[in-house]
Structures are given as structure tokens and as C-alpha cells.
Amino acid sequence: MNGVEPGRLSKGTVAPAAGPATEKGGRAQQAQVAAAKGGVLRGGLLIAVLAVALGAMIVVAASLGQVNIPPAEVLGSIAHRLGLDIGPLPSGPQAENALWVVRFPRVALAAVTGAALACSGAVMQGVFGNPLAEPGVIGVSWGAAVGAATVIVFGLNALGNWTVVLAAFAAGMLTTLLVYAMSRQGGRTEVVTLLLTGIAVNAIATAALGLLMFISSSDALRSITSWQLGSLASATWPAVATVAPCALAGIAVSCACARSLDVLALGERVARQLGVDVERLRFTGIVIIALTTSAAVAFSGIIAFVGLVVPHLIRMAIGPGHRTLIPASALGGAVLVVTADLVARTSIPYQELPLGVLTSLVGGPFFFWLLRRTRSKSGGWG
Question: Which residue among 201, 254, 348, 356 is least crowded, i.e. fewest CB within 10 A of its CB?
């Protein structure tokens, strides 16, 4: 053994002749390093592609509607607002106002809502180590629905048009933090307990929502149903200014936690041995999920499957590393919701499909395909 312990070869010490096992381990390590570099390159390329796709979809979505505005005029209007005398201005009557009062706020709210929901899904799956986890599991969506329905049924209007929004936001945050508090015991939170507590609270919230709908008037029932189905029809610049900071803050904190989430993927025991404060990371994740999802659903209603499907798609493309998974998921969610909203408002003339119904119609079959594919390739999730 030359008096040298394995792994402690000093500089200049000649290592013993490598055996077949050592060569095999070295090749495996080189393969892992190469795979990691390939994942980073694919992640960077995918983020660039998604950023370009988001820019293109924003222009397309702003140009299409009941009155079509050519993309060149959309770009020209943006350039003139930025002080650049480039491109033509919208030529149609009231086209400039239609762009900046109606379409751009709606497209912007769709983008930040999609980014917030997809980022929440990526964090949720990373924190819980469960590919089936999505923000709705811990009660944030149904809690927000109960808050909005309570305001609608009892006719509360203390804060004007913002009353429903703030009630939904506060109820979503409160429900999520309540689930977290109820699942803690002895200073620790077990994933299974947290998910089961979320299921139980969701059941209670669903029952409360059903009771509120039972006692509501016809107009209130119509408003609650419309809110539940999801829509971006009420988008305004103040709404964008409210959701955007929450989404950006959630994405920034999530990216800061990316390395800890990668370590947590190795298991709780390993993460603790490597210095990760698992409880603090889990609480931070819960706060991010509650903040971003509550802000998103408060203005748009319940939009299902974005937080579940988008992180899966991104993970299949670039792997599980959270440094690229989180920003790519945010961009992918923005592209998906902008596209879905465009389809919802243009597929039927003078009619608008509910956005939440549309995402569920597409997301449900896709999720079924994902389950079948994973089961056939790896024998299941476990």
C-alpha cells in the first residue's frame, strides 16, 4: 500500500497501478461530468429558445383578437413607446388604445401568471421529492376559492374591485400556512403528513365552497363559477403590477435555493449531512408556493395542471438540476398560459372559453400519457 491511505495521495506521489475497478470508476465519473456539462448546455439552450418563443408569442397574442393588428404595427407601437422612431404605428381606429389598454395587460398577466404557477410547481416537486406534487395539493387554490366565494356571496365590497382579489390572496396564503403548521410535530415536518394534511384541508375547503354556492343567489353563483373556471378577461395594468413582483420574488428566491434543492433530491439524511437545513428549506419553499400561487389565482381563478405538467416537460428535456429547471419552467409556464389564453379568446368568434377548462382538457390527457410513459420506461415512480 506504500504507506498511503486511499484518497490521500500527496502531490507528486505515484498512485498504484489502476485496476479494472478503478478504471471503471474513473470512466463513470467522467461520464457523470460530461452528462452534467451536457445538461447545463441543454439548459442554457432551452432557456434561450423559450425566451425567444415567449417574445414571439407575446407579439402574436397582442396582434390577434376581434380586430387583428399586424405584428409589425405591434412592434412599431412598442418601439414608439420606448422612444424609438422605428416601425409603423397601428393604423386601425382605436387600435393603439386596444393594444395598451386591453391586450398588453392581458398578455402580460398571462405571462406572469404562467411563470408563477410553473415555478411553484418546480419548487413543490423539489421540496417534497414527489413528481405528483403541485401547488393545489397543499390547499392554496381551494383556499383562495373559498376566500373569493365568501366575498361574492356576502356582497363584501370594502375595497372595491380589489376586494375579491385580496380575499382570494389572503385565504390562499392562510390556508397554505395552516396546512404547514398542522403538519409540524416536534419541530419537524414529514412530507407524507404534509401532503395528507393538504388533502384533508382541501376536502374541507371544497365542502365550504359547496356550502357557499348552495346559499348563494343566482348572480353570485354565476360569479363564483366564472372565477373557478379561470379567466384573464379582467386583466389590468394594476393587476400586472401586483402579480409581477410576487412572481419575480418567488423565482429569484427559488433560484437561490436551487443548489439546496439539488442536494435534497439525494435524500433528507444526505442533505442534512451535507449541511442543508431541511426544515428551513421546506418552510421557504412553502412560503414561495403560497405567495406566487395565491397572487396568480387571485386574479385569474383556478388554472390547473400548469404547475404539474410544465416542470415535468422541462425535466424531461434538460434533466433534474434546479439551476436550469426553475428558470426554464418559469419561461415554459409563461409561454403555455399566453398560448392557452390566445386559444381561449380566439377559437370561437365573440365567445371566450374558460382558461382553466382549456388547460385541464390539454393537461389531463398529457398527464395520463406521462404516467404511462414513465411506467413503461422505469417501472413506475418509486
Answer: 348
Cα gap 187→279, rounded to integer Å: 8
- Neighbouring CB atoms inside 10 A of 16's CB total 12
Please give the grid coordinates belonging to residue 64.
390577434
Residue 234 pLDDT: 83
Task: For residue 170, give the nearest of 155, 152, 148, 203 by alpha carbon.
Answer: 148
Q: How many helices (H) and strands (E) does the chain have?
A: 15, 2
Q: What is the pLDDT of residue 70?
A: 92
Residue type, 40: V
What CA–CA distances, in Å, run from 145 to 76, 124, 167, 300?
Answer: 40, 20, 9, 11
Query: Rounded to the nearest 5 degrees, what angle is found at the Cα of 275, between the Cα atoms of 273 and 280?
Result: 115
Residue 8 has pLDDT above 80, yes or no: no
pLDDT tens digits, residue range 297-350?
888 888 888 988 899 889 888 888 899 999 999 999 999 999 999 999 998 888
Least confident among 27-41, 270-284, 302-316, 358-372: 27-41
Contact 36, 320 (CB under 8 A): no
Q: Can you tell me the distance from the alpha carbon of 193 to that of 172, in angstroms, rounded to the nearest whole number?
A: 20
Show Cβ contacts of residue 221 under 8 Å, excluding neighbours closer than 6 positions: 213
3-state secondary structure string across 223-272: HHHHHHHCCCCCCCHHHHHHHHHHHHHHHHHHHHCHHHHHHHCCCHHHHH
List Cα–Cα distances, 32 to 27, 38, 39, 43, 74, in angstroms.
Answer: 9, 10, 10, 16, 46
AA letter at 310: V
Tell me the whole-structure pTM to 2 decimals. 0.83
Q: Which three cell numbers stand for residue 295?
A: 397572487
Is 346 in contact with 338 (CB distance < 8 Å)? no
